[in-house]
Amino acid sequence: MNHPKARFRLRSAWAATVTLALLGLAPAPLAAQEGAAAVQDVTVNDVVIPLGGTLLKAPKLTASGTRLSKEDLAAILRPDSNVPWEQRLARLDAGSLTVPVLVSENAGPGENRQTVTYRDVVARDIRAGRVGELTAAGATVSSVAGPNRGSGTYGQVRATDLDLAALSRLYTVPGDGKGAVQRVYGTIQVSDVTYSDARGTTVKIARLDGRDLGGRQVPDGWSGAFAIVANGFDGASDRRPLAAAAADLIDATSVGSLEMQGLSVSDTDPKGPVLFEIGRAAYTSSGSEGGTTLDNLSMTRGALRIHVGRVAALGTSLAPTVATLQGIAAEPTGGAGFSDVEMRRLTPKLGTLTLTDLSIDLPPEAEAERAAPRDVRPPARGALPDPGRSARTPEPRPADRTADPLAVTVSPRPSPRVALREAALAFGPLTDGVPSATRISLTGLSLPADLLAGAPLLGLLPAYGYRDLDLDLVADASLDEKARDLALREVTISGRDIGTVRLSGTLGGIGPELFSGTLPAATMVMFSGSAKTLNLTVENAGLFERFLAAQSKDLSLKPDELRKEYVTASLLGVPIILGNSAAAKGIGAAMGQFVMKPGKLVVHAKSKEPAGIGFIDLGAARSPAAVLDRLEVEAKAN
Known about the structure:
This protein has 638 residues and is of the alpha+beta class. It has 14 helices and 28 strands. Helices cover 24% and strands 42% of the residues. A hairpin with a 3-residue loop joins β23 and β24.
């Protein structure tokens, strides 16, 4: 759902578009003036038209190259005309229409009041209510009341192939939401947009482009549907009209493509100025590039700098959102607000999300090196001077002339950088807002090793001589709702000059409720969940040798001596710890082989019970042997 401020701007932008289309392209008379003597220029003054919550004002409007008389045009613009706009617009023909100043005064929702003033509005080649080209030299925007105070400007506005009759039908005439899509704009461009609000946030857009924009008629008309959505988020009223109107608008909107260039958002945050920028944002409804792409994203806050080359979301769909809203709208009785389950069901189909060329420059750290202070305290009162020294204060040595005994030397470290070459997230079909399958991959993740201090396992890498890490990670899982099984198809982490750990397996007793984020569901998993299979693969690529060298140094042993001790511990100690069963001895033997020649270690474990071993049983087991006895285990090395 949209934030109230965003809803206000959306509604105002739509009203401004209708304003520009309707007033800037003055409607035609009820009947064509076939009997007019000749083509002429006609001017009317002080035009005022109410349009829902918007009041339109044009001090002067001129129609050129038309057969309309001044009286005809004035009659058309009367606010109390009983002839529908679409009928009058469909009969409009003129060479051009000009409005030097066009003012749109929009009221609501609540205390919000917004005024948009367009300059030099010109429509050309108007035939049967269709406009070949519509331009405005620019506009100013002012929100003078309510919590969203602000002001802004537009540069040049240009639209082509504008169908005024279709625009009027969509905005004012109810429909069933199932009719054919009516194209309103062939193309539309807006340049040099700037808007600043009272909170200190400034938004700038170099250029906006749209193509093939239109939609279907909805039961409340677009004007009525926008009003319902804008006023329907108070949390106390019946939610069904809001759900119905929102579903209608989402499902009825048709967009060929949208593109935004040069977006910047700056904020005068008390904790430090923030600047967010996007070089290009584009949406395409079809084709190989169908979806949304963002290029050259950056965010700066003080010394923190983040940059992303591209973010792309492909294969997304709002169909689950629309279906959920329609289901809520069809309920026999209404209520207020939305439950957590309903909010999850409103989640769109996510498709595939990719990110490339991420870099994060973190604020540099500084180490304070305080110089050892010299004893410069004066002698105690009444103390006798040292007879071996002059009573006069000695001259400082040349090296001490500029030395400050309390000086602090700050040595800045280089800015830590985190980089990621590529990330990809793929999602399967949704069940109650939860994807049935998810795959996450991170390729080329590089970062200083000390940033992982305190993390399990990886936090130990700096002690083994690693300074910069280059990692790849993969997590691939699928959920079988009917069998209530979560298949961990692959969980892999690998690092250059480190090695690879790969894990896969099957967990039972897992359903969509696990991902609801509620504590009771997570707690119930401990009682219903179980482990069915587990496969572990460890491949060494240099970590074991560094570990052995570090341990040998700490224990004052030669590496070969320590290796032999570890082999003995694996062959004899591990089986004893695990219960000395055949499986335990097999695991110990495989570990011994791996220590002797570090290459690959593989362990397969499967529950002897079809339902798996319950998580609660694993937690309550008195010893590893009690668990191992319930498993079929195979282990091998190299």
